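Quick check before the chapter quiz. The format below is the same one you will see on the exam, so make sure you can read both the input and the output lines.
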Amino acid sequence: MKNISIEIKWAIIFVLMSLAWMILEKSLGWHDELIDQHAVFTNFFAIPAIMVFVFALRDKKKNYYRGDITYLQAFLSGLIISVIIMVLTPFAQYITLEYITPDYFTNVIKYSVSSGELSQQEAEDWFNLQSYIVQATIGALIMGVITSAIVAIFIKSKKH
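Here is the expected output.
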């Protein structure tokens, strides 16, 4: 467990940051009166998400590998973080959709139908807790693996 304590710490930081991001989105109206802008602005989450991975892998390099890390070591560290985030994602989605923004599904279904993007049934099938938990869990792993692969290129020691 000591070997992955840095990864556990940063996965928890990532999940807490994602919950803070949801509070920000909700407070800016992207889950209700400005829901038409949500699809665009939610993508800015990538910036702090990538930053967390950069800080995490730098932490692993400095404090575990004493400043000398290979690409594979950095990538595997990011992969471990990604798996832990994936495990925590259903809980984060539940907290987000039940407590932070409980009206989100009602609002997004209403918007999707009124804008002609989806039928009522399609919107209800897509925008629900079970669907979002599955989407977010798979998405967390996929994006984590991609982010880890890219960030590891920049974090690895120059001699490797």
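If your answer matched, good. The two ends are 27 Å apart (CA to CA).
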